[in-house]
């Protein structure tokens, strides 16, 4: 069923491995005029979440192949503007906290009413449509959708990894990010690989982002990590 309202039917991705819940959620959300696709494991879920039609993800935490936390972490760097609502079991308080800290916008504890899920989805879609897809700082404009970066209005070409590293640093300003946090978020490493890959990429970014007028706004915080050092404009 298509929505007959003024809005187009948003495409919702449900990542959940319990067929009974998928079926119940799919039917419930379709009745509410939303379009729904689903994935039964974390790997497939991440793939589908990167499809541009998907506007919101309902993500179970306990999933085969790739956990909900891992899916969230990847989405955070690859599609940071995509809202994610977590589905969790009653006992998973720590996971909920980690999930919200990790970028999820909301969560629901199982069992839940599908009408409540639909209401929370609509609330998030309203926020997302108002939300920004561009990070603007004094010298920089980072378009998260077209992945274009301008420094003093001059386009800068970045590799995929350089772009993800820049977005991660810029989104978390003014916080200092540890090596471990950056390696986990951008490279997916669960432990420090003991290489200088991060330092190498910081070097690439600094060379590309600096201008004759100023250095790149990435500061090294000794024995901690790095910080993006420019105010929003
Ligand atoms: Ca599950």
Note down, in words, how this protein is organized.
With 233 residues, the chain is α/β, with parallel strands linked by helices. The chain has two domains: 119 residues, Response regulator (Rossmann fold, 3-Layer(aba) Sandwich); 95 residues, Winged helix-like DNA-binding domain superfamily/Winged helix DNA-binding domain (Arc Repressor Mutant, subunit A), CATH 1.10.10. A five-stranded parallel sheet has the order 2-1-3-4-5, sandwiched between helices. Strand 8 and strand 9 form a beta hairpin. The longest helix is centred in the middle third of the chain and has 17 residues. The termini are far apart. The N terminus is likely disordered. The structure holds calcium ion. Calcium ion (CA) binds next to loops.
